[in-house]
Design brief:
By secondary structure, this protein is mainly α. The chain has 9 helices and 5 strands. Helix content is 43%, strand content 9%. The strands form 2 sheets. Strands 1-5-4 form a 3-stranded mixed beta sheet, sandwiched between helices. This is DNA-binding protein.
């Protein structure tokens, strides 16, 4: 006989929402999903484990009376319309944690190799004139107006700017999915890019699902934040796994 589990209804709803799964999708997978939400039925232990894997939710969360309040390690993201970030999806959080792990690894490597700090970081002051900050960024990237004008497409321009940023010591990542999971596509409507400032391992991530022109703007936007070295954009350490 299967054991039934009294899963928290608010947490079930929250887990489904942050995984961007609607009731129709879940009813196909779990026939009694509507009944779980009214307490007229409860999932079995195996069903709840399957649901936890499907929504990438720690199993223990389902025994909380209310969903946990998860905070973004980086509060200032570039969204589709530059609107304030609501509660992050599991895909965004996992992407952030992946970037932080890679940043941690490269910081340790840089320390072991005795690499110097990246000169780009924090070169401008928040009170600096925009023209002065732009000049600092242009000099650091070493990409002249003539070189930029010679690039025929947005794709070529983006590729060249990424190469210049990497030559300046910035780790640039771009992807349209979470890690290597092609079933977990990143939502441009949620975020377009972010930067994690660090003197040894500055990292910049672009949402690869965005257009090339938009990625170009996001890249410049996030590089500007690195030039200012804004403290609110310095990534926190990854929270402990639940």
């Amino acid at each position: 006989m299967s054991a039934f589990v009294p899963a928290s209804i608010p947490v079930l709803r929250w887990a489904a929402a942050r995984a961007r799964l609607d009731d129709a999708d879940l009813t196909q997978r779990f026939s009694k999903w509507p009944l779980w939400l009214t307490a007229d039925a409860q999932p079995t232990l195996r069903q709840l484990e399957d649901f936890a894997r499907l929504t990438h939710t720690p199993f223990g969360y389902f025994f909380l009376p209310e969903p946990p309040r998860l905070k973004l390690p980086v509060p200032d993201f570039r969204t589709l319309r530059d609107t304030p970030m609501r509660e992050p999806s599991v895909d965004l959080l996992d992407t952030l944690y992946l970037c932080q792990r890679r940043q941690d690894w490269f910081r340790e490597y840089a320390q072991m190799q005795g690499l110097p700090p990246v000169s780009l970081i924090g070169q401008a002051h928040v009170k600096s004139a925009p023209e002065a900050a732009a000049a600092i960024l242009r000099d650091a990237l070493g990409l002249s107006v003539a070189e930029r004008q010679a690039l025929p497409t947005w794709t070529d321009a983006l590729r060249q700017l990424i190469a210049c940023a990497e030559d300046a010591g910035v780790l640039v990542m771009a992807s349209s999915i979470v890690g290597a999971n092609s079933h977990r596509k990143l939502d441009v409507g949620e975020f377009r890019g972010f930067a994690l400032a660090d003197e040894l391992a500055p990292l910049l991530f672009l949402n690869g699902a965005d257009s090339k022109a938009a990625q170009m703007f996001s890249l410049a936007h996030e590089l500007a934040h690195l030039v200012f070295g804004t403290k609110r954009r310095i990534g926190c350490r990854r929270p402990g796994a639940c």
